[in-house]
Amino acid sequence: MSGPTSSSIRRLAPDPDGATLDDADLISGYAVAPGPHLRANFVTSVDGAVSVAGRSEGLSSRADKRIFAILRMLCDALLVGAGTLRQEQYRALRLDERRRQWRQRQGRPAQPTLVVVSGSLDLDPSQSAFADAPVRPIVLTTADAPVQRRKRLAEVADIVVAGDRTVDLPHGLDQVRALGHQQVLCEGGPLLFGTLTAADAIDELCLTVSPLLAGAGAGRITAGPASAVRTMRLRQVLGDDDGMLMLRYTRDAQPR
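The structure corresponding to this sequence follows.
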C-alpha cells in the first residue's frame, strides 16, 4: 500500500532491528483485539503545540501521514469534533482502492464511517465531508439542537441524539457501537479529546512528535476542565529519517 513518496519508518522500541517497516508491519504494530476500542491520534511539536498557523498540517510529515492512513484503514468509525471538521477542512472520508480491498478481505465494510460531534449542529451539509461521503456520516448531537439545522443535516447524515443540552459522549459512543462500529479512531479536536479523557473513555493514544519548536500561541492536544490523571503504557516507538517520532500508548496492562 505504500506509494513511491512514502517515508522510511523504523521501529525504535521494542526490539529495534533497523529494518524499514512495510505496511504489513505497520498494520501488525497497530492491530487491536476485537471488541470496543477507542484510539486517539494526534500530532504535536516538541514544545507541545497542537497546530502551526491554526492547523495540524504544519506539524505533519510523510511518515506521519502514512501512519494516519493506516489508522483510518483499521478503524470502523472516525470520530471528530465539529470545530476540527471545519478548521481542518475535512473532505469526504474515502479510502483508496488498495485499502478498501484490504478491509473487504478482513470481512469489513469497504469504508469506515465518519462520526461528527456537534451539540449546536453548526455544520454545512454541502461540505465535502458530508456531501461527497461514500458512507452516510453520523452526527452525535443533543435533543435541544435547532430543528431546522437537524432537518438540513438529516439529508446527508444520520442524526443520533446523545444527551439533552450537551452531548453525552459515553452514551453516544454506545450508540455508535450498537450500529456495529466497535473500533473508533478519534482525530480531535482538543476539547473532544479532553472530554473523552475526563469520561475515562480513551483506550489508546497514538502521538506523533514533530521535531519543531512551534513557539507560544497554539494550544495543547487536550483542552477543557481538569480531570483525573491516568497512567498510559508505552507500547511502540517508530521513527523516520527526518526525526519524527510515532509513539503508541495504551491503557491495558498486556499487549494486544
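The helical segments are 23-30, 62-74, 82-87, 97-105, 128-131, 147-153, 169-178, 190-198.
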